[in-house]
Amino acid sequence: MSTSIRALMGACAVGALATAAVAETTITVATVNNGDMIRMQGMMDGFNALHPDIKVEWVTLEENVLRQRVTQDVATNGGQFDVMTIGNYEVPIWGERGWLVPLTDLPDDYDVDDLIPSIRSALSVDDTLYALPFYGESAFVMYRTDLAEAAGIDIPDQPTWTQIKDAAEKMTDKDAGVYGICLRGKPGWGENMAFISAMANSYGARWFDMDWQPQFDSPEWQAAFTDYLELMTNYGPPGASSNGFNENLSLFQQGKCGMWIDATVAAGFVTDPEESMVADKVGYAVFPNKEGVDNHGNWLWSWNLGIPQSTDAPEAAKAFVTWATSKEYTQTVAEAQGWRAAPPGTRTSLYENETYVSEAPFAKLTKETMDAATPEKPSVQDVPYVGAQFVSIPEFQGIGTAVGQQFSAALAGQMDADAALKNAQQLTQREMMKAGYIK
After folding, report:
1. Which helix (H) or strand (E) holds 303?
2. Statement: the pTM of the whole predicted model exceeds 0.70
3. Alpha carbon distance 129, 300 (integer Å)
4. Domain ranges in the chain with CATH number 3.40.190.10
């Protein structure tokens, strides 16, 4: 072979290698603007090193907008996203409809049997996983230990709503910009209705009776929603009808909330000394109950990564979702930011890790509240549905958001509790009739 031909062939080989290096697969990940997901975007060096041929583009959205966008995309087979951040509400419904790629044949080192059983079950249809959990949560009370001490109050491990109201009153100092309690008010089935539904459960209420008749005209709903409005009107921050999870997190970190009752995942952020002014002054208690009602309203939620059937890069998407939900990813976060920052609530091994349990003062109660959640029986009354802070029927996304808008309007002073409950009853009954649940 002549020198010139050999040189030409060598040049062609180099050119082919260069082409291969840039021939990458691009996947688009739709995610929510919560802290753990923002953190993940800063941890991509590990994934990029393992998969230099996969480029990840992010679409990061506010929670209500994310739900609207991904639901529209998956229902129309739109193909905008290769990976979707979705909840355990959507996964079984979408999996059963064939909208999600089944996640079978996961790598051995993924250790699927390490997933917390209740979370794994919530993401499965006929024992097949249709999404992988990024973090899991229940809900509990986070409170300022210094404010409680200064007010001379003791918040018990299992408080009642009466005790919560008393504590909120005594910790409120509006002149100092401190409000006794912060709760979700932003409308949305997964925003204010997640909290209010859980609170209603703890009062003995239910969304529907066994004949799918709405129950907003019940005394239990009347008591729960009236108390919610009184708490927020008297002891909550101004503009609360616009506050969701992220807004209340910011308020608590700034020292403006005496108590915040919300997702257990928030504990990792309110105790972050780099982000929270009150990191060393946080105590925890179980989600409250109404006196005489044996139900603490624990919810069970997970944010998960699912792959829509419309993706044109299923293997690249699968590589990403297995990496982002792996034990190795958790280790990466712990090494970079400490075990307190590890994504909680998805793996048994995390709660068997003594270092995590010792560094995260909220770990034990988080696991206990998740274990105590009973989504299969969210109310002390009989119900025809499952789901602790939601109702696992496809129509709930629209109904829950519409009811949430009524309740948020009441919080903003546009109507009273009776009017909001009456509107909720009527619109829910109308939608359930339209869907064929009732006649």
Report:
1. strand 301-306
2. yes
3. 17
4. 20-137+301-359, 139-297+376-434
